[in-house]
Amino acid sequence: MQFDILITGVGGQGTVLASRLLAIAAIHCGWTARTAETIGMAQRGGSVTSHVRIGDKHKASIIPDGKANLLIGYEPAEAARSIQKLATDGKCLVNMHPIQSVLSALDRSYTDTGQIRDYISAYVPDALLIDARKLCGATNVKALNIILLGVATGAGYLPFTKEIMMEVIQNTIPKNYLEMNLEAFCRGFDIGSKNQQ
Amino acid sequence: MPKQLVMGNEAVALGAIMAGVNLVSGYPGTPSTEILETVARKNPGDIYVEWSVNEKVAMEVAAGASYAGGRVMVTMKQVGLNVASDPLMSLTYVGTNGGMVIAVADDPGPISSQTEQDTRHYGKFANLPVFDPSTPEEAYHMVQEGFRLSEEVKIPVILRLSTRICHACATLEYPENLQQARQKHIPSGFVKDPNWVIFPSLAYRKHLYLEEVQTKLAQAFDRSGFNSISGSGYSGVATGGNTYNMVVEAVEDLKLDIRILKIGTPYPFPEETAVKFVSPLDRILVIEELDGVIEEALLQTCSQFPYRPVILGKKSGHLPLAGEFTYEIVKNALSEFMKIDSIQASHKESGKQERMAQPKLPMRPPVLCAGCPHRAAFYAVKKALKGKEAVFTGDIGCYTLGNAKPLDMVDTCLCMGAGITIAQGLYRLQPEKKNIAFIGDSTFFHTGLPGIVNAVYNNADITVIVLDNSTTAMTGHQPHPGTGATMMQNTSGKVDIEGVLKACGLKVVDVADPLDLRASVEKVQHAVDYKGPSAVLFRSPCIALVKRHPVMEINQHDCTGCYRCIKEIGCPAISPANEKVLIDDTLCMGCGLCSQICACQAIKGKEQKGKGEVSNAV
């Protein structure tokens, strides 16, 4: 068993929580998990990546190029930036809602995600591209990270069942936010199921 | 014992708790911060934990507790050890009583640091044993062995960590009931003895002891399970720390017949182990991040041999001298060393083929958060100094990000506390210019104070801008002397920055709310105009500590699309959209700075908050 997941996004989107949940789910299933996360200065709105390596063998914490079984992109440009990490048969799920950087807002260089969409699709023809922000509505944008985990589970991209993921969320997320996150996960799961290939 | 997902820093903390640590002190610094935080969170109740005012203080507090027989750990990032190096060097001579582990986190890259310095050198410099874990699991065991060893040889030990250990999570088995499972270490108490007072004659005797103990330590490390030899063949690769994992993975992927030397204790170097590794080999490649410490040690070991194998590494140009290593760097170096066509070797596992060129992607450097009061303070200072020749000296913290466009308000950044003193040096050589120093609240207490006293004593005409956001924000919101909160779940008297500035003898100390732009500009002008040292204290809490104000909204009818808001303040919540401007209401904190600079008064709070109404005033 070896399953490597890369999560990419923008600091503040909750990629650290997402990778922790996946790693805890792996341990729950009896596997060994290792993660590497961006913590520190880059968390202030910079590009961030979380690596989750599930398996029994001794591995480095960072996923080598061409080895990721799954890439979950929380933002289109950030997904495109790390797509070389994907293995030949790797799956790809991307939230296509763009987040401007301060620099791109200044020179208005990031106004269209069309080219990024083409690039990802050319690389991974069966990539699942969604607008998770539209899907979660205005009320719970904070749960976007959990929605994406739901989509990935529903699409069959993860080596975990819905029940295991729900249990991990239940045991990890603080009570006050639990209901919102479980609901978000289920909503994502339904979307993912419809897109199961 | 249940298996749990544990971060490297948490593993270090758990190891220390299990070893019966009595006191933990430190100063926050990425990537080391979570070690001390975890000890505080998992404190069974009888461990004293403190964020000290700086690393030198932390080291000395820990030393005192060790004199009294306590097991102590002190935590910091690599540049923090520079601050603590004064007590470190002398403490090595004086020696310790209770076991002392100095946990220091290096930062290859660097990702969040000023330097790429290699703490293993400090071991050699100070004659202290160094442990260098390759995984969080190993760190958990090393810290426990560290306490034992320190007590045996009566000097501190260094646990040298690095970002990919600190901020990696691993699957660790540890007891659920820490209080029950941990060693009970009862401090013996301080015993008066001339050996605690460092005098030249004692220093000489202690130096002899230190040299003697180095040989013993190297021999002990030869028997240590943290160093190992695996594999076979006539070629070898020597490595240690996090790089070991990449080497193992690449060797397996390339199916190499090669011997691997893993060094877990780089200083004193386990020479016998190295000789065992080297003996059958013709060629050796050394792969290690930061400096060529293992490489140098192997070169030295082999210099005694009549026949010497070829040793390649950083010095021979086979591996990069700077930066974080990746699997790809390691694999390519190994392929070249073993004369394997790397492209052919990686063919089977190669990723998806690129079918079109990557489009230009937006650059995304870290920025000040939306609503960050530092942005408003920088902007007010910029406005106040408009038209004047000024140099803005920065310091270490979130506010280093004030250097980014469009604020562009950090002209220098050196090390903790240096903003105030660099400004004084600049002033001496160019007194006609305005020299403005920025410093955060935690950094102010860390090493800012001597600079303030120096400015008053030597009458330097500088203006110090203290950015007080009531927390140590960059490292994840730790308390500091100005907050009155401690790591022992109690409160203490707050040290008042305004009072300290005045007590130091500053004649002008203005206090302002940076989110009130007009008043802030006036306060800064007043302080800058004063001939002599002056200060403005900007008080506004970090956005992570407060409930957000009603978010800002742009009246699309009134917005002329001039982009003044975007061009002036660079808030991540504001972006261009359809020739107008849009505020992302999930990011906006409602600080109201944009509403105070909008040229057409198009920005207002969703529920108007009053003071944000002023517009076009400055």
Throw out a few tags for this protein:
heterodimer, A: 197 residues, alpha/beta, Pyruvate-ferredoxin Oxidoreductase, domain 3, 6-stranded mixed β-sheet, 8 helices, 6 strands, B: 618 residues, Rossmann fold, 4 domains, 6-stranded parallel β-sheet, 5-stranded mixed β-sheet, 36% helix, globular
Descriptive account of the structure:
The complex is a heterodimer of chains A (197) and B (618). Chain A has 197 residues and is α/β, with parallel strands linked by helices. Chain A contains 8 helices and 6 strands, in the order βαβββαβααβαααα. Chain A has one domain (2-194): Pyruvate-ferredoxin oxidoreductase, PFOR, domain III (Pyruvate-ferredoxin Oxidoreductase, domain 3). Helix content of chain A is 42%, strand content 22%. The longest helix of chain A is centred in the C-terminal third of the chain and has 20 residues, at 175-194. The mean pLDDT of chain A is 92. With 618 residues, chain B is α/β, with parallel strands linked by helices. Mean pLDDT of chain B is 94; it is low at 608-618. Chain B has a 6-stranded parallel sheet with strand order 3-2-4-5-7-6, sandwiched between helices. Chain B folds into 4 domains: 3-222, Rossmann fold (3-Layer(aba) Sandwich), CATH 3.40.50; 228-344, Rossmann fold, CATH 3.40.50.920; 373-539, 3-Layer(aba) Sandwich (Rossmann fold); 552-613, Alpha-Beta Plaits (2-Layer Sandwich), CATH 3.30.70.20.
